[in-house]
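Cross-posting from the modeling subforum.

Setting up a comparison between two proteins and wanted a second pair of eyes on the formatting. Protein 1 (sequence, then structure tokens):
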Amino acid sequence: MSTKPSKTLETFPNPNPDRDYTIHIRIPEFTCLCPKTGQPDFATLYLDYVPDTDCVELKALKLYVWSFREEGAFHEAITNRILDDLVEAMHPRFARLRADFNVRGGIYTNVVAEYRKPGWRAPEAVTLP
């Protein structure tokens, strides 16, 4: 059992590939480094995705997120990079990554990046009385 950071995102087969459903994941302990000062940046990541054939394995996701602790990156770049890596690993129908960064220099930053599989359309929302 690995307890070291890893850039490997493992997946497992979607148990219900014939249905659109959403997986919500909250990652409250994301850290990376400011590329200008080297100071730590802290964020909560929110991943929402509609799987197609594969789902991301949570321990692998934890180790992947951990691998950014010593990397310098701008908030916009790191959010898009993580989403790109997740899309490459899972090939989801839809994925949205929101990164809510804690204050840096008196400014909070929230970055949202999305991916839609070509041809996929979100199901119509159901409104109940």
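Protein 2 (same layout):
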Amino acid sequence: MIKEPALPGPYLDVAQDAGRAFFLSGKGGPIVMLNLLRFREVADYSDSPEIAPAQPVSGREAFDTYVAHTLPFLFASGGDLLFMGDAGPWLIGPTSESWDRAMLVRQASVDTFLAWNSDAEYLKGIGHRTAALADSRLLPLIEGV
């Protein structure tokens, strides 16, 4: 049996260089973001105790709170949630890696994506995402290619 290398991580936020490259890419038109999410067993609100629920919740429950908070801002920006569902181990990919949920989120453009992600009211709920996730991946996809 071939031993797979350990993956670095966790990855929870956009790296500065990756964010800069995405913004400066000049890609026009719709962008679909593939989100792969792995939840904590128990959400960790230590970075944002002001929004922590009264009783401990699972990472999945914290992420559902984040989604409920986020959708109005996403829709107001012209974006859409195309798909959200349970995930699991890869069919083709590292056998040591699995994901709890996958999402496809569409935005009209890189600019509308960045505007939505920097909205001050939206950012008030970002702590639910941080509390929920043990690891994540975000891959921008260009439609129509």
